[in-house]
Amino acid sequence: xxxxxxxxxxxxxxxxxxxxxxxxxxxxxxxxxxxxxxxxxxxxxxxxxxxxxxxxxxxxxxxxxxxxxxxxxxxxxxxxxxxxxxxxxxxxxxxxxxxxxxxxxxxxxxxxxxxxxxxxxxxxxxxxxxxxxxxxxxxxxxxxxxxxxxxxxxxxxxxxxxxxxxxxxxxxxxxxxxxxxxxxxxxxxxxxxxxxxxxxxxxxxxxxxxxxxxxxxxxxxxxxxxxxxxxxxxxxxxxxxxxxxxxxxxxxxxxxxxxxxxxxxxxxxxxxxxxxxxxxxxxxxxxxxxxxxxxxxxxxxxxxxxxxxxxxxxxxxxxxxxxxxxxxxxxxxxxxxxxxxx
Amino acid sequence: xxxxxxxxxxxxxxxxxxxxxxxxxxxxxxxxxxxxxxxxxxxxxxxxxxxxxxxxxxxxxxxxxxxxxxxxxxxxxxxxxxxxxxxxxxxxxxxxxxxxxxxxxxxxxxxxxxxxxxxxxxxxxxxxxxxxxxxxxxxxxxxxxxxxxxxxxxxxxxxxxxxxxxxxxxxxxxxxxxxxxxxxxxxxxxxxxxxxxxxxxxxxxxxxxxxxxxxxxxxxxxxxxxxxxxxxxxxxxxxxxxxxxxxxxxxxxxxxxxxxxxxxxxxxxxxxxxxxxxxxxxxxxxxxxxxxxxxxxxxxxxxxxxxxxxxxxxx
Lengths: 342, 315
Prior knowledge:
Chain A is α/β, with parallel strands linked by helices.
């Protein structure tokens, strides 16, 4: 009896160990014209944030390049686990392995050295990698700046909140762009900036937003997938508004009610560029920037909250947006923002 | 300034509840001689089931508070089941408790995430339990915000403190729990069924850990995701040592930890020149420092903690 129970428990525990998701989103018959892409992510493909945006980008590229891409993904991959799944994809003949997050950098660089014929990509990073490693860097200070203009214009208490994950990568760029945007239209506004120290602690981001709302903030923003927790907390306030960093937030009930506008990374453009480079024999050694100028970002208003955005506010946002679209120069001074002076 | 302090303090009660419930549950486990590192996994299952019931009942939208209550009950029941499973492994099979706890943690987190994906899909929110302003009391300046404007579940959770003190120190069952956690052989010779008492403690511990998870998903974050618990189960285990296995001191630890969390957030929000990386670490550093200074005074520690009991073997 004890042996049977031991066996049953062992099976149950094994089941939980392999509970991380993996799936074949779509595939076509594998031939020489097909580019096989594998995606490795730390969260899930429907996290309404960072990981979903890359998954959506790849599926969007598949729609634009019918039959060209064969795609598979692995979710919930911690950096320590990601190496084995990346090697498995190499063994299965994948042409491009995207590890979506700067935390995978060491793993990618190590495996890329072992398999020089396979192409790898990771981001966000502005580093130029080896000849078979691409990097990509969203210049998200641009999207932050647009949201900052909105927040600085919409605030009535003159206090806005910002819930950040960690002060690095594209989150740091978004947050500093947001500060510059607020200051461009409302130099007297108090900007409450705080970080949770995690990309995925939804509870902590919810607590942080609640605290900022209690301190008087009436427009809040946040970056990375944990921002969903802060958006949920903002929805509890009868008057506060939210400006989002991901369009998927607009699809939620609280996003519909609170999110005035959101921007999103258009990874579809990046993936298409990567496929084209692979076809031209370029396997890496380049950093692909993402900005409004090259179609790397999308910005949309929430139709349900259009009435809160006056024509004057919209004109200011449009002016900045058109400037970003026209030039790839972006915001040169985003790195100079010092939170301790706010 | 007073408003900022009141705002900070008003967060302490509702944000400490999940830690408090899980810690009190773990205290019952440890008082009976078993430490359960799988608290995190039970909380994850509780959070998932707690959210699932109102989510399915309301099809993702508004629903009756009855379904939130059912969510809590489902989470508590799941905690009891996982407590029994842990008991089978550690009491009947006498597996090392630490390793079994880590296994339970992985099992709970993995299973909750997998079932969530199957039944719900991506990250989803629910209306949850609203905050309630207690008539008259909530209008008292400062004190009203700090103590009398929280959700009902938070108040009920704090009732567990006197209840658990009464059970542990004033009832025969509480005496049996303390006996099997201190000297199971002596308890056994006095006719106490060590195995049964330990199972009962694990069921209570599991139930409270499940409720703690459900509190996070129903009353606090009002959503579920795979990473919702994010190490809070392990903090709860540490708080039991921090609180010297006494409900009142555990409550103090949970409140202190939560206060440190909100304090570091305020430091960041008000642009005080202090590295945010250090600010985020502040609550955890506090726990380690307090544990270091109080670890010498372990007179209340269950002396049989972590030791499997085999009545056939004399030691």
